[in-house]
Amino acid sequence: MRTGQSTVALLLLTGIITACASNTKERPIPPEAQQKMFQELTHKLDFDRDGTATCTDIEKARTHTFQSVDKNADSVLISSEYRLAKFEDRAYFFYEFNQLDTSNDHRISLNEYLSVPKSEFTAIDQDGDCTINQPEAVAYLKSTLRDRSKGDGKGRKNQSKNKGKRQPSRGQDDITIPPIEG
Ligand SMILES: [Ca+2]
Ligand SMILES: [Ca+2]
Ligand SMILES: [Ca+2]
Predict the structure, then answer these.
(1) Is the separation of the CB atoms in 139 and 25 below 8 Å?
(2) Do residues 62 and 111 touch, judged by C-beta distance below 8 A?
(3) Mean pLDDT throughout 24-48?
(4) How many angstroms separate the CA atoms of 53 and 129, rounded?
(5) How many A from CA of 79 to the centre of ligand 2?
(6) Domain 55-120, CATH
(7) pLDDT of 76-133, one tens digit each?
């Protein structure tokens, strides 16, 4: 969770929102900006690069992580391997090994691994059709921004202060997608 890969919303918003900086409250977002928000969020989530962000992308990304932390490549994770996954994908942060090992064989199979709800995706996919469309992307990014500015305004200030430095990760809000190699 401190890898920086999970600062999706932060990165997205830095570019898009600085344009309409200070008193953004509920000003309508121009269509081209909405289009851009949609494209960038899609790009971040579109693990298989087919141009659409779907729940399948999450599964593929998770499978990819599963394989990359399966150090001895025996297609199951032991506790030390699973610990690595928790760092790679913070959807797993609050899931202990034993919770996922529903078969109680002290190993986590891929199926067990994938049983964790895709809550970060479903939070965006409001109509539940497993695909992120433009209104959903815009609504999500707007609500993320709102949460951010609700705090004390520090978010944005820190952001510019830290420009060029590594961003500290924030905890609960953004989507976690493992980086795509190549
Ligand atoms: Ca896709
Ligand atoms: Ca293994
Ligand atoms: Ca949808």
Answers:
(1) no
(2) no
(3) 91
(4) 11
(5) 9
(6) 1.10.238
(7) 999 999 999 999 998 999 999 999 999 999 999 999 999 999 999 999 999 999 999 9
CA of 112 to the centre of ligand 2 (A): 14
What count of Cα atoms within 13 Å lies in the side-chain half-sphere of residue 61? 25
**Structure tokens, 65:** 């992580």
* 133 CA distance to ligand 1 middle (Å): 12
For residue 99, the CA-to-ligand 2 centroid distance in Å is 17
130-181 pLDDT, tens digit per residue, is 999 999 999 999 999 888 887 655 544 444 444 444 444 444 445 556 555 4
Distance, in Å, from the CA atom of 39 to the CA atom of 43, rounded to the nearest integer, reads: 6
Residue with tokens 């913070």: 90
